Amino acid sequence: MKVAIIHPWFLMLGGGEKVVDVLAGLYPEADIFTLFFKRELLPPQLQNRKIKTSILNRFPFSARLHFHYAPFYPWATESLDLSEYDLLISSCGPVLMGVNAKQDAIHVCYCHTPPRAWWDLYAEHQARMPWIARHAFVMAGTFVRMWEFNAMQRMDHVISNSNYIAHRVQKYFRRDSSVIYPPVDTSMGYLDENIGDYYLTVGRLGRQKRLDLIIQACNALRLKLKIVGTGKEEPYLRSLAGPTIEFLGYVSDAELSTLYARCRAFVFAANEDFGIAPVEAQSFGRPVIAYGHGGSLETVRVNDPEGHPDTGIFFAQQTVDSLVDAFLRFEQVEERFVPENIQEHARRFDTETFIAAMTKFVDNATQRSEHL
Of 176, 230, 329, 333, which sits 20 to 30 A from 1 (CA to CA)? Predict the structure, then answer.
């Protein structure tokens, strides 16, 4: 069986790229297809693999301007020739669902999210644009949404990375999907008795991460906060930061492990589809203060109906006041969190669990196809 793995682009090392990294290990003979890539940003399993790209990768400034080429994605996707492959596994949103495959090929979509700019955040993105760009965005959006909807109907099987995404896949594409959580390496986690006096947040410094809320809440309460990561919002975030806020930029894996293991709690203010960093923090036995929406409702355990112990607390609104209240509530119950319980919960999302679930799903899909 000839296998192809498809991913929109390799221009950063995020959760989607970690999924492809694990899939590449599962299928070492698979060919990799993408629209854009930079070899230095490939996951480890792909460093020595052949990567087949679209013509868009040769466009001017393609890595920096790849989002601006969105109206060309359908054309570029259909130009990729996958007619010789028996099994296609797409790790992406719907943009690459429309690849040309042979009639009896099995196409499994692992959906990270329906692209927010075209779907649930479409009106918000439109409102922020100057009027000239807005008209172009509307025309492109109408075309891309129609193309993505039709492409998703061609999938043989759809997997969502959380129940939250499964709901959105049903809402926007009218497709049922199975849920397999993405892989998180929880084996690196350990418990440390030397807990520090700081809170921690980790991730790209982008607007959607809502680090501004975390900084302002810590300013108001004069709480120590360590921020790991870089991004285009860093100058703005530094302008907000008071004397108790520390920007660490990029840190080594060993340094990050120590930061996770010794923080009072991990703070997460984003509305994420899943959210790997909160799971990583819990693998070190540390509680999480999270915005109670999206993937956090599945990765952080609060008021479990079956009575399992909490692994963090939620705040209800993406506002400074709501987060300040969450910090105060956390400090009242901080001693009640049991690191061993938190670590055990994190192991539900371990890489080995993902591998077992994906292997079983794909094997069943291919076996059903052989009997049709």
Answer: 176
- For the entire predicted model, the pTM comes to 0.85
Residue 371 to residue 279: CA distance in whole angstroms:
39
Angstrom distance (rounded) from CA 334 to CA 288: 11
Dump pLDDT digits (tens) for 236-276: 999 999 999 999 999 999 999 999 999 999 999 999 888 89
> Distance between CA atoms of 111 and 90, rounded to whole angstroms?
8
DSSP string for residues in 313-345: EEESSSSHHHHHHHHHHHHHHGGG--HHHHHHH
And the tokens for 327?
A: 């910090």
Nearest to 9 by CA among 40, 45, 31, 42: 42
pLDDT in tens, 44-92: 778 888 888 877 777 776 666 666 666 677 777 777 888 899 999 988 7
Secondary element (H or E) of residue 277:
helix 276-283
Contact predicate 41/24, CB 8 Å: no
Output the CA torsion 194→199→204→210 (10° steps).
160
With DSSP H G I counted as helix, E B as strand and the rest as coil, what are the percentages for the chain, rounded to 5?
Answer: 45, 15, 35
Neighbours of 342 (CB within 10 A): 25
Q: What average pLDDT does the structure give for the chain?
A: 87
pLDDT at site 160: 94
Residues 184/105, Cβ–Cβ less than 8 Å: no
- Count the Cβ atoms, other than its own, within 10 Å of residue 105: 20
* DSSP 8-state code for residue 268: E
